[in-house]
Amino acid sequence: MLKKLFTKIKQTGNKVSSIEVQVEDLLSHFPDPVQGHNLLSVGSIEAISVDKGHVGVRVILNYPSAGVAEQWKERVVAKLLELEGVDSAEVNVSHQIESSPGQNSIPLMSGVKNIIAVASGKGGVGKSTTTVNLALAMAAEGARVGILDADIYGPSQGMMLGVDEGVRPEPFDEKSFKPIEAHGLQSMSMSYLVEENTAMVWRGPMAAGALQQLLTQTRWSDLDYLFIDMPPGTGDIQLTLSQKVPVAGAVIVTTPQDIALLDAKKGIEMFRKVDIPVLGVIENMSTHICSNCGHTEAIFGDGGGAEISELYETELLGELPLALSIRQQVDSGTPSVAAEPEGEYAMIYRKVARKLAIRLAMKNKQVDIVVPSIIVEDD
């Protein structure tokens, strides 16, 4: 019989706690697999069932956690079996991703729960490589993920995902088309709609209009997260995105180099002006790893990501090395998380993905998002 949480049953006379109370007490002191809070305080325990000597616990997290769930379950089961009167135990862990407030304001994007913009103030910091690996890492953690290449002038996600030249999206109906699936991700890019060597000689408003069409005319299917690989800078594309869709949050990619940090600050300031929360900073090319001897060296400096995170009261989500294999794998169309799912770099990306998902879940609980309006005033 399913027991409601916090139902305290004590034996009359000797005041010895029942199995239910012992289980609840254990779980109240057992840390969440990633956040470190106890399970009861974060509301993750869905139900506890007790049938004679068998205990069942159902846990529903608000972030994907496939990379840590199994080992964590084994620890919980081991602790439960230590309790008096417990002969067997089963723990079921799943996740339920909530939609960002305001997401339902755009019916054409009803298939997306959370939109995350991945941006940088300048080019050359590895933003697109970080975006595709982060999206793959979130999918590896158990989420349904899509990726939109918003760099209208220089789209690269098609190549990074290994989508063959000439592959075109199929129509869904008269007004929309299906995303192209690659490595388990739903994806859309301007590179799927034009020839590889075609130069998009468009003025800003045309590029912004193209982005809006890619966003709203793609029939995204039941996505927990849609990552948008933003072009560098703070121009029309960024303004269109912030005006037309309820972006749940932004991630800033930078390198430790001073000039990159300077431009990253501009990117953060831009998102602040349009009321899009910055969920965190990722420091790419943090250290160089020699492919011959394994020696590491901070050739672009160190501490820059942590410094900018502290300055803007956000979180340093992770630090990625400048490694030859990361570049080679993404250039070959099989990014690191897909090429070596259990590799060292894949594990870093997955850790970053979990931290990002938690930051977003916490933000969604606290803040109502509205699509901001942008007013330009002449002083």
What does it look like?
This protein is an alpha/beta fold. It has 11 helices and 14 strands. It folds into 2 domains: 10-95, Fe-S cluster assembly (FSCA) (GMP Synthetase, Chain A, domain 3, 2-Layer Sandwich); 103-366, Rossmann fold (3-Layer(aba) Sandwich). It has an 8-stranded mixed β-sheet with strand order 7-8-6-9-5-10-11-14, with helices on both faces. A 4-stranded mixed β-sheet has the order 1-2-3-4, covered by helices on one side. β2 and β3 (54-61) form a beta hairpin. The protein starts with a strand and ends in a 13-residue tail after the last helix.
Could you say which structural class the secondary elements and strand pairing correspond to? alpha/beta
H and E order? EHEEHEEHEHEEHEHEHEEEHEHHH
CATH class type of the largest domain: Alpha Beta
Q: Please give the order of strands in the largest beta sheet.
A: 7-8-6-9-5-10-11-14
First-last Cα distance? 69 Å
Query: Would you identify the regions where 5 or more consecutive residues have pLDDT less than 50?
Result: 1-17, 368-379
CATH architecture of the largest domain: 3-Layer(aba) Sandwich
How would you summarize what this structure contains?
The protein has 379 residues and is an alpha/beta fold.
Short descriptors:
2 domains, Rossmann fold, disordered C terminus, alpha/beta, eight-stranded mixed sheet, 379 residues, 14 strands, disordered N terminus, GMP Synthetase, Chain A, domain 3
